[in-house]
Design goal:
Layout lengths: L2 H10 L3 E5 L2 H11 L4 E4 L3 H6 L1 H5 L4 E3 L10 H7 L5 E4 L3 E3 L4 E5 L3 H7 L4 E7 L3 E2 L2 H19 L6 H4 L16 E5 L7 E7 L6
Parallel strand pairs: 1-10, 2-3, 2-4, 4-7, 5-8, 7-10
Antiparallel strand pairs: 5-6, 6-9
């Protein structure tokens, strides 16, 4: 993969872009630039692996559905994430042509990534990158989404019940209810793409 070409593709789509060799370096950078803000988290294995929740909460007001405050649940905390200064999310797939994709079951992550914040950080490992948008979507349907369904223990979904490939199921636990394609940066919201040269997340 020609990383310079990938960076230029995202920059053409109006994103600020930074590439880090390791998750630790990316976490150090985010911990430095996000300070004194309200911060919302999208439900993400990549962000968990970076340990950002515990680091950022020492000098920011942080909302993470994975760590609801006392007396609140996942959904209530996800609502609080909708209007924070900063929103942190990963993506399920991205193309070397500078397009990102998120598949969502509840909509908290996809919805919050589109509007409501001063700045959104999209953080992902190189394992999420595919040459084209079509291949990135194929990766989501046949790799990421089945693993995600399994991680959540949704044993009644088509992919978990069968061969770990998407069967466009109708399970109430289906995690693929909406797909957001980020063709370009949204208007009036700052957005930064953080690419990490490691395999992270699903
Ligand atoms: S639509 Fe259903 S079968 Fe397809 S990946 Fe999503 S949960 Fe699995």
């Amino acid at each position: 993969m020609d990383m310079q070409r990938v960076i230029q593709a995202f920059e053409r789509n109006r994103y600020d872009v930074r590439v880090f060799h390791t998750g630790e370096e990316a976490a150090d950078y985010l911990d430095m630039v996000i300070d004194g803000k309200t911060v919302g988290f999208g439900d993400s294995e990549t962000l968990i692996s970076l340990g950002l929740y515990s680091r950022l909460r020492t000098h920011n007001r942080v909302f993470d559905p994975k760590h609801p405050e006392e007396g609140k649940n996942f959904t209530e905390t996800a609502r609080e994430c909708m209007l924070t200064d900063v929103f942190l999310t990963s993506v399920n797939g991205a193309s070397e042509t500078g397009i990102m994709v998120n598949m969502d079951g509840m909509g908290n992550r996809a919805g919050a990534s589109l509007f409501g914040h001063k700045k959104v950080f999209f953080v992902f490992g190189v394992n999420k990158l595919r040459p084209t948008l079509e291949e990135a979507i194929r990766r989501i349907k046949n790799e990421a989404a089945p693993k995600n369904a399994l991680r959540h223990g949704y044993t009644d979904t088509g992919c978990v019940r069968s061969d770990r490939r998407c069967h466009d199921c109708s399970s109430p636990n289906r995690i693929c209810n909406a797909m957001v394609i980020y063709y370009k940066k949204m208007k009036r919201t700052e957005a930064e793409v953080i690419i990490i040269e490691e395999n992270l997340g699903l």
